TrEMBL record:
Family assignment from sequence similarity: Belongs to the DNA repair enzymes AP/ExoA family.
Tree of life domain: Bacteria
EC category: hydrolase
Name of the protein: Exodeoxyribonuclease-3
Pfam families assigned: Exo_endo_phos (PF03372)
SUPFAM superfamilies assigned to the protein according to its UniProt record, in alphabetical order: DNase I-like (SSF56219)
Entry note: cofactor: Probably binds two magnesium or manganese ions per subunit.
Length: 256
């Protein structure tokens, strides 16, 4: 079972590239983030024609998440629990072929300090609380998405120009570390224990792609029941170099 995560950075703007990648990579499940489309603007017909069922939560201009699957998904949650006032479209959870898959788009948090960073940290605490409950079920669970966290200095080409960025702040990294300490396995780090691991994100400016000045902020975290089935993981780096590409590349795992 191949499960992928891909921050598409505008699903309608980059639909052709998404369909090309789906046809090539053929994931069984694809978690998409940053749709930048309302529910009505989601390209359901094109996704269906490509052979995928789709569940999504849209939002005007920003955010938005979707789970595409070859088998029909059973949605278990629309939205991260813990704050009924939070209306941002950042979390979708569904069961697919016996695996519970969560698609998440964690807040960026910039500029920091400030209310956006406070929201990021509060969201992470809610995620950690919900993740602990999922872990306690003993079920195979995959938390896939754009976490907007660079976990360690080994997960970035050079942190010198990023010192003030919310993605690298000690509070962000500590919250991510606490999540792992619950018992989740970072699939890419498990597959590539050496430094550096494969990047998943390259900025559009400063020739980041051309210089391979990347970061690792897209993660697939596995519960023990999922981790014991892990046979491979990787990043489809070449997708980032295509015309009108997202600034992210798809990351994926294979479960036996």
């Amino acid at each position: 079972m191949k499960i992928a995560t891909f921050n598409i950075n505008g699903i309608n703007t980059r639909l052709a590239g998404l369909l090309q990648w789906l046809g090539e990579a053929r994931p069984d499940v694809a978690c998409l983030q940053e749709l930048k489309a309302t529910d009505a603007q989601f390209p359901a017909d094109a996704i269906r024609d490509a052979g995928y069922h789709a569940e999504w939560i849209g939002e005007h201009r920003w955010n938005g998440v979707a789970i595409l699957s070859r088998s029909e998904a059973i949605v278990t949650r629309r939205g991260l629990p813990g704050d009924p006032r939070d209306a941002q479209s950042r979390y979708l959870e569904a069961a697919v072929d016996g695996v519970l898959v969560a698609c998440l788009y964690l807040p960026n948090g910039n500029p920091q300090p400030g209310p956006k960073f406070d929201y990021k940290l509060a969201w992470m605490e809610r995620l950690n609380a919900h993740a602990a409950g999922l872990l306690a079920t003993g079920a195979p669970v995959v938390l896939a998405g754009d976490y907007n966290v660079v976990p360690t200095e080994a997960d970035i080409y050079n942190s010198r120009s990023w010192k003030k960025d919310a993605l690298l702040q000690p509070e962000s990294r500590a919250a991510f570390a606490r999540l792992l300490e619950q018992g989740w396995t970072d699939a890419l780090r498990e597959r590539f224990p050496q430094d550096p691991p494969p990047w998943t994100f390259w900025q559009y400016f400063r020739q980041a792609w051309e210089r391979d000045a990347g970061l690792r902020i897209d993660h697939l975290l596995l519960s023990p029941a999922a981790a014991e089935r892990l046979t491979d993981a990787g990043v489809d780096k070449a997708v980032r170099g295509r015309e009108r590409a997202s600034d992210h590349a798809p990351a994926w795992i294979i479960l036996d």
